[in-house]
Every structure is written in C-alpha cells, then in structure tokens.
Amino acid sequence: MKLQSLFTPDLPVYSAKFINGGEKALLTGNRKHFYIYDVAANKLDRQVIGGIEQKNLSSVVVSPQEDLLAINSAESGRCHIYSQKTMKIVQSLKLNGSCTSASFSPDGKYLFTAGDQGDIFQWDLRSTSATKHQCVSKTNDVGNFHTTALEVSPDGKYLASGSKMGTVNIFELGDSYNLNPTPVKSILNLTTSITDLKFHPSSKMLALCSKWKKNAVRLVHLPSYSTY
Q1: Percent helix, strand and coil across the chain, each rounded to 5?
Q2: 151: which of 91, 160, 167, 171 lies 20 to 30 Å off by Cα?
C-alpha cells in the first residue's frame, strides 16, 4: 500500500535512504542541494552542505551501527560525513580526484571511499570531530581506473568494487578490515559502468548491475564466485 508520494521538481533523485530509524529520509541527486523528508510531519526540507553549494551530491550511504551517514560529492572529490541526529557535518574527507562511492564497515568504525583515480581509501571513524578521521590505508583498485560502486559484506569478510568498465573486484578483508591489495576474484560478465552492488544479508551472494544496458544484472555466489 502506497503511503505517500514526493515530488522534487528541482532534484532528480539518484539516491534515497531512511535515517534516524526510519523517522526521516534523505534524498540526493546530481544537484547542489539535497532534501530531508520528515515522515511524521510529511515535510520536505531543502539543505546545502555547510551553506556552501557543491555540485553533484549523487549518493548517500548510512552507517549500520553509528550515528553517521556519508554524502559523496563527485565533482569536489569530498565525502561529507554527517550526524544523523543533528544533520551537522562531522568532517569532510578529501580524495584525489572525484568521490563517487563509499561504504561503511558493519561495525561502523571504518569508511571505504573511491572515485575516478582507481584507489580505495580506508578511513578510521573512531575519533571525535575534534580529532580528524585518519586515512589508515590506500589500495589500488586493480585494473580499474574509475571506481563507481563500493560495498562491504555484512559479515565484514569482503569488499566489492565496481568500475566504469563493468569490472567488479572482490577483495578479502582481514582483521581491522585490512584490505588485501590483490582481489580474490574479478567479475568480468558486464561491460558497462557498474551502477550498484549489494550483498545478501548472509554475505553468500552479491548482486551487481548496470543501468546502461538492458538486463545487465548478475548474481555472484560466495565463496565459489560462480556467476549467474
């Protein structure tokens, strides 16, 4: 049953995520602003980052454990980390080049980010706002010159990265989510830019897709890496 329809004439919605336990929803797109929807009040609130408009806030990811969310700014190369409760910026992380994708670790202690430079950054989020979050590692996304999607598995054992070329790399994560620099498997079944990656809650299946080609959807079984 449909409860509500929203219309944002000045924002083509690329990403929509519930925050604050479902009390609100965050809508972002390839514009300089984003919207926060209050479900109970049925109210849309237009916001910009820190009062300074930045282009292409095209995606948002929500931490599974902590009071944090991350909004990626593709053109500025920044990943803006917000508190869900206050919707105030905790910190803006700067990457080399663009920032097109991000994914939290299952415990919310780390954030992985990537963009058009072919590198995956790991940030330690356990510090407070007074102490800047530290980049603890940087790993080359082997064979990819432009990473378009990242996803950490719910059990914390794998990180999957998708590229503009359609390649999906699957990396193993060790203790403290240390990223093995060599992927355990590269999935080459798709040939257009990867739009999204999603692990099954059991971490035994990975779905990958590309919106740029009809029926460009695949499922990968783990740990056999069989593709369907």
Answers
A1: 5, 45, 50
A2: 91
- Going by the DSSP 8-state scheme, the letter that residue 111 receives in this structure is E
In the numeric block, the tokens 């237009």 are attached to 46
Q: Residue 27's domain is classified under what CATH number?
A: 2.130.10.10
The beta strands (E) that lie in the chain are given as 13-19, 24-29, 34-38, 43-47, 59-62, 69-73, 78-82, 89-94, 101-104, 110-114, 119-124, 134-140, 147-152, 158-163, 168-172, 185-187, 196-199, 205-209, 217-221
Range of the domain at 54: 13-140
Residues 165 and 148 sit within 8 Å (Cβ to Cβ): no
| Residue 113 within a domain | yes
For the chain, the domain total comes to 1
Instruction: Give SS3 for 199.
Output: strand
Closest CA to 152 of 107, 213, 97, 188: 107
Tens-digit pLDDT profile for residues 124-178: 988 655 456 788 899 999 988 899 999 999 999 999 999 999 999 999 998 889 8
Average of per-residue pLDDT values in the chain: 89
Q: Is residue 62 part of a domain?
A: yes
The reply to whether 75 falls in a domain is yes
Residue 163: name the closest of 138, 196, 139 by CA: 196
Whether 89 maps to a domain, the answer reads yes
